[in-house]
Amino acid sequence: MTHHEAALLAALADADEDRIVFDLAGIEARHDSLLRELPGVAVRFAMKACPLDEVVACLAERGAGADAASPNEIAQAIAAGVPVQRIHYGNPVKSDRSIAQAHRLGVRDFATDSREDVAAIARHAPGSRVFCRLATDGAGALWGLSEKFGCSAADAVRVLRAARQAGLTPSGLSVHVGSQQMTHEAWQRAFDLLTEALEALAGQGIALDHVNLGGGLPALGYLDGHGRPLDPPIDKIFAVIREGMERCARVPGHRLRFVIEPGRHLVADHGAVRAHVARLTTRRDAGGRPMRWLYLSCGKFNGLYEMDDVRYPLVFPTHPDGPRVPAVVAGPTCDSADTHTPGRPPVLVPEALASGDPVWVMSSGAYAVSYMSQGFNGFAPLPHRCVRGAGGSRREGAGPGEGGGPGEGGGYGAGGFRAGGSPGEAG
Ligand SMILES: Cc1ncc(COP(=O)(O)O)c(C=O)c1O
C-alpha cells in the first residue's frame, strides 16, 4: 500500500456519512510522475474531470494550467489561482456569448475545429490564438470522443488558414485519443495525423508553436467486467507519446512546445466514494432465476455516473472476512439504468452485509463530482472532502450538502441514518 492510498483509506475510515474524498497529495504525485514521464510538457488540467477548487488550486501550485470548457470553468480556474495565461478554452463548441465572456476574462487561447467557430472567435475575441482539433477514431478507449469533435488534417489546414486571414494567430493542433484509452496504437495513429497536418500546414507557410495532446491517459485502478485489473499499458503509452513528440518536433517549419490535458489520469485513483449499503436482497427475476442484488446509497446519479462502463474496486471495511456471495451491484434510484456494469458477471460481496454498512468505492475520483445530478429521486449530490497526505490533515470541502442535509435528500428517508460498523476495521 502506498503512502497516498493509506491517506485515502484513512479519510474513508474517518467518514461516518456518505461523501467523496480526494487525496490532494496523491493527485500532486500523479501530476509530478506525469512530468517525469513526459519532461517539458505543459499540463493543463481538464477541469471537467474534477471541478473542485482544492484540486484545481493544488495543481496550479505545481505549475499546471487549466483546460476549461466554458466561461464558468474559466472563472473558477482564475479564482482558484490559475494564471489566466495558463488557461485555454478547450471546447470547440461555444456560442458567441461564451467566446466574448472568455475573452473578457482574459483568455487568449481557443480550441476550434470549424471555420464558423473561427469567424466567431475573430469577431468576439479578436487577435486571439487558435489551435485546431483533429478528429480521431476513438478506438481502444472506453469512451471514444470520435464523432462530435475535430476535423480532418485537410480541414485543419483550411480552418487555420481562415484563422490567419481573420487576424487570429494559428497557434497549434490538438487531438483527443478518447478517454481511458487502453492502447498505445491509438496514440500512434494520433501522431500520424498530427505529423500529416503539420507537414501540410508548413507547406502553406503556417508555423505553429504547440501541439496539444489532449486527454485520454488512463486511470490505473479500474477493474474489467470480470473484476480483474484493467491494467492499461501505461509505460508503453508514455514511450509512444515521447516518440511521437520527437516525430512532430522533426517536422520542419514549426517550433513546437507540447501541452497535455489530463483529467481522469490525475484524479481517478486519488478519489473514492464512501457509500453505504441500502440493502442486500435475494429475489427471483421474471424468468424465475434467483439473484442477489446489492443496492448501495450511491450510483449513477450521485457520483458513479460511469459505472455502466467500468467496474470500481469495492471495499467492505466492516466485513474483511466471512463468506462471499455473488450479487448485482446497483445504485439507490428508481431507474434500472442505475446498475453497475449491467449484463456483466456479478460481484462477490460479503453475505452478512447489513443496511448501513459502509462501502468504499475506490478509483472513483474522475467525473464523479461533475456528473452528479441535483437530487434525482431525492438523492442529494455527495459532499466532498479533500485531505492531504499521510497525516490526513483536512481541507474541508465546500461541496453541496457538506455537513448539512440528510444523506438521502429531502425525500424518502430524510433525516438520514448512521452507517453501521466501526470505520477502519479493515481495508
Ligand atoms: C478537450 C478535452 N481535453 C481533455 C479531456 C480530459 O480527458 P481525460 O479525462 O480522458 O484525460 C477531455 C474530456 O472529455 C476533453 O474533452
Report on this model:
It is a single chain. The chain has 427 residues and is of the alpha/beta class. Helix content is 27%, strand content 21%. It contains ten helices and 19 strands. The longest helix has 19 residues, at 185-203. The termini are close together.
Poorly predicted residue ranges: 391-427
Main beta-sheet annotation = 9 strands, mixed
Distance between the termini: 10 Å
Q: What is the overall silhouette? A: elongated
Helices, by number, come to: 10
Topology order in helix (H) and strand (E) letters: HEHEHEHEHEHEEHEEHEHEHEEEEEEEE
Write a concise keyword list for the protein shown above.
427 residues; alpha/beta; TIM Barrel; Lyase, Ornithine Decarboxylase, Chain A, domain 1; 2 domains; eight-stranded parallel sheet; 10 helices; 21% strand; disordered C terminus; binds pyridoxal-5'-phosphate
Secondary-structure topology with pairs:
Blueprint: H1 3-14, E1 19-23, H2 24-37, E2 42-46, H3 53-61, E3 65-68, H4 71-79, E4 87-89, H5 96-105, E5 109-112, H6 115-124, E6 129-133, E7 141-143, H7 153-165, E8 169-174, E9 179-181, H8 185-203, E10 210-212, H9 234-250, E11 257-260, H10 264-267, E12 271-284, E13 290-296, E14 314-315, E15 324-330, E16 347-350, E17 358-361, E18 384-388, E19 393-395
Parallel strand pairs: 1-18, 2-3, 2-11, 3-4, 5-6, 6-8, 8-10, 10-11, 13-15
Antiparallel strand pairs: 1-12, 7-9, 12-13, 12-17, 14-17, 15-16, 18-19
The protein binds pyridoxal-5'-phosphate.
